[in-house]
Amino acid sequence: MKRFICFLVFVALYACCNAKYFKTHCDLVHELRKQNFPEDQMRDWVCLVDSESARHTDVIGKPNKNGSRDYGLFQINDNFWCSNSTIPGKGCRVTCADLITDDITKASICAHKIFRRQGFPAWHGWTKRCQGDLPDISDC
């Protein structure tokens, strides 16, 4: 337990110095395009990010019912996808700290992988908020 608390402190300190906030939907869209997110799904991805992290890269979610946590812009779960150590691991072969930096490359690669396996329903925020009224990004 002490080790896990130390890890969370490290992650929090790391994130505060390396985090990014996408102020507008268009800022986020431009970055998601750089990360090869498909145009025909862009509104869904923007809604997902709004719902999951409010466009902040440094978000670490509160513990889930099973004790796991979600990390970063896409709120990627540490039970399956990232490792809570300094050694990359689990499904995306990344550390959870890799997912909370201003460079969203590793988080994007992982989000693509999760999507290929499970689709948008893998994210509770998308399931709860994004199945109808999607954000207008036509000016982006």
From TrEMBL:
Catalytic activity: Hydrolysis of (1->4)-beta-linkages between N-acetylmuramic acid and N-acetyl-D-glucosamine residues in a peptidoglycan and between N-acetyl-D-glucosamine residues in chitodextrins
Residues annotated as signal peptide: 1-19
Top-level lineage group: Eukaryota
One Pfam family matching this protein: Lys
GO terms, molecular function: lysozyme activity
Cross-referenced Gene3D superfamilies: 1.10.530.10
UniProt-listed Enzyme Commission number(s): 3.2.1.17
Domain Glycosyl hydrolases family 22 (GH22): 92-110
Enzyme class: hydrolase
InterPro entries xrefs: Glyco_hydro_22, Glyco_hydro_22_CS, Lysozyme-like_dom_sf
Keyword annotations: Antimicrobial, Bacteriolytic enzyme, Disulfide bond, Glycosidase, Hydrolase, Signal
SUPFAM superfamilies reported for this sequence: Lysozyme-like (SSF53955)
Family membership noted in the UniProt record: Belongs to the glycosyl hydrolase 22 family.
Protein name: Lysozyme
Organism of provenance: Spodoptera litura
Source taxonomy: Eukaryota, Metazoa, Ecdysozoa, Arthropoda, Hexapoda
